[in-house]
Amino acid sequence: MIKKRLVAATAIATLAPLTLAACGGGGSNEPGSEGSAPEAVSSLTVLDYYTESPSHSQIGDQLQKCGTSIGVATVDHQSVPGPTLIQKVLQQASSKTLPDVLMLDNPEIQQIAEAGALMPLGDFGLNADGYAPGPVSAATYEGQLYGLQPGANTLAIFYHKDVLTKAGVQPPKTWDELKTAAKKLTTDKQYGFAFNATADYEGAWQFLPPMWTNGGDETDLKSPQVAEALQLWKDLVDQGSVSKSAVNWKQADVNDQFIAGKAAMMLNGPWQIPSLQREKIDFGVVPFPINRPDQTSIAPLGGEAWTVPVTGDQAKMAKAAELVKCMNTDENQMIRAKQGGLVPTKLALAEQYKAEVPSMAGFTDAVANARARTGKLGPKWPDTAKVIYTGMQLVLTDQAAPADAMAKAGAS
Amino acid sequence: MSDAETLTTATEPTAPSPETAPAPRRGRRGEQIAKILFVVPAALTIIALFGYPVIKNLVMSFQNYTLRTFISGDAPWVGLQNYVAVVTDELFNKALVNTALFTIGSIVGQFVIGMVLALFFHKNFPLNGVLRALFLLPWLLPLIVGSAAWRAILEQDSGILNVTLEGLGIIDTPIPWLTSPDVALIAVILVNIWLGIPFNLTLLYSGLQDIPDELYEAGALDGASGWKAFWNITWPNLHAVVSVVIMLGVIYTLKVLDIILGLTQGGPANATQTIALMSYQRSFVEFKFGQGAALSNILILISLVFAIVYLRATRRRVDE
Amino acid sequence: MVTHQQRLAARQTRRGLRTGIAIVLLALMLFPVYWMLNISLQPSGGTLPSSFFPPQPSLAGYATAIQDQGQNLVTSMVIAVGTVVLTLLVATPCAYALAQFRFRWISWALLAILISQMIPGIVIANALYTVYENIGLLNSIPGLIIANAAHAVPFGILIMRAFMLGVPTSIVEAARVDGAGLVRAFLSIVVPISRNSLITVGLFAFLFAWSDFIFALTLTTEGNITPVTLGIYTYLGSHISNWSAVMATAMLASIPAIILLVIAQKYIAAGATGGAVK
Question: Which residue ranges make up each domain of chain C?
Answer without folding.
Answer: 61-277
